[in-house]
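Batch job 17 of 40 flagged for manual review because the log was empty.
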Amino acid sequence: MRSLRAWMLIAPCLLLAACATRLERPIAPFESKVLELAPGAPFETCVHLLAGERLFFSYKADPPMAFSILRRAGGATLSYLLREPARDEDGVFFVPQTEDYCLRWVPLPDEVPWPTLLRFTAHLNQGG
């Protein structure tokens, strides 16, 4: 019954071919489960970050996915960090100002008929 409820929550995301979630503060550290995304679907999760913080991130994806950290302001999307498609990536994002930021993964433009598997981690350190 529990797995049926979980599937009912995930199914709409797969049908829409994209998901957006929200990470709650503090991220201490956060480790996702393996996410199975519909073929060609991007995935995005957002979190409120404070100026001077450092967001440490890593991910594994199969097939490879491009990664970015962005925020939206007045109808525009501002990208702060862009990474080429990779299966395994990590790094540090130095937060320039207090805002809501989104971590976004986008699959390769190649049409693959199978789902993408994604797993990511994130944690914060205060700047200084």
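Reviewer: the log was empty due to a logging misconfiguration, but the result itself is present. Residues 1-17 have pLDDT under 50 and may be disordered. Unflagging and moving on to job 18.
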